[in-house]
Here is the input.
Amino acid sequence: MANSADRHSAHSRSAPGASGRGRAAGPTGLIFFPAFDWAISPTHPEREERLLYTRDQIFEEGLLDLPQLAEYRPRLADHHDIARAHFCVPSIEAQSTEAHRIAAGSTLVLVDALEKADIANGFALVRPPGHHAMRVVHGNRGFCNINNMAVMVEYLRTVYGHRRIAIVDTDVHHGDGTQDIYWNDPDVLFISFHQDGRTLYPGSGFVEEMGGPNALGRTINIPLPPETPDEGIHFVLDELVLPVLADFAPELVLNSAGQDNHFTDPLANMCFSAQGYAHLNEKLRPDLCVLEGGYAVETALPYVNTAIIQAMAGLDYSHVIEPDWAPDKFTLKPSVKRGLESVVSQLLGIWRQREPMVEAARAKLGDHYRRQRMVFYDTDMIEEHQEELVRLCRECPGFITLSTRAEQAYNPLPSAFCVSVPIQACPRCAREAAAVYQEHKVAQKHDYVLLQDRLRDRHLRFHSATQEEMEY
Here is the structure.
């Protein structure tokens, strides 16, 4: 645990992005996993070439010959690693291929290297991506089955004892899966800036989405107007993201690094450049990055990823410029600037009032918070109906139960009742959660009853039809 304490001290001394922030000396760790044997379809935008062109560019630049970079080999995440982050219905085996497990496992390789101080920071350039995968998984949504970032966060917390972690999601699409997993967790700060959900999938990520009652203000969504250029995103970073990170003082800063804000990306409408991305990374100084989206295979990804890698390694990235880059075409419009100023002001106000908001919510709601919602899996055309109940405890974030039923093409899929015990659970919540799990095993109202006990790192799956219980 000495490593964890030292890293916490380093992050607390100065704001992320400040030149004085402490960090162990060492190279930037890289992992490439293009997943040759996994594809949604042969012509789908999310395909192996997303990484192959980047790999070619890095070879051309000779970057892997430099002492500032160290390449690592990926490994499989095991089912236990995935169970810390997800309730997979009907099973982890059904929802994760070997490619998903290697993409998630690659992040854990870099965690181990970081914690051993073998690297100063790391970037997992892997696919399939993950940030649209929610706590419950019935299939693929937004090209994602397994949330690589969440698997990494829970590994950091369980294996290395970290608690206060910040996730900054820079993908053009709202990171709704990561938001869902940490919605009720006050120790994980989730910040996402993305193209306005009124104009882009998944249609969420608005300022009003602030977190559950015990974690209000720990979710910060920054919707950006289409065609926001480098200047606009850096305004948000400088005026909102970096000050909030400095105030939160996380032990680690993690980056869900989507590159689809780029001006050539075919699935979005933003105007970010490779230089803008690299400069963002230089300011943010994330400990670990995980690749998310980015679908301009030739015109963006090789340049953006190369620039980010050089920024992470402290190398000069000023020469990395896309052939089609024309800075005069991408200026911040006054109307967009005024809109960004308003959003930043509103979010800073929410951040400053987060504790009073939590107290007010507890006083209003009492002992429990309930929400019902429908989740649509756009890739697999699944409609999920979910009811969530959160125990509002004053000693801990409270345990969560989820009742989930789904259908695909009007055919019902297996149902599940899920119980999640937070890693910070108090003894009373841990006991109550265990009792609820046992009660629903007996009731047999769902096909499966699942327990995610992060406190004890124990994860169970009970099949009502066979009366068989297994541990991941």
Notes: The first helix runs from residue 2 to 13.
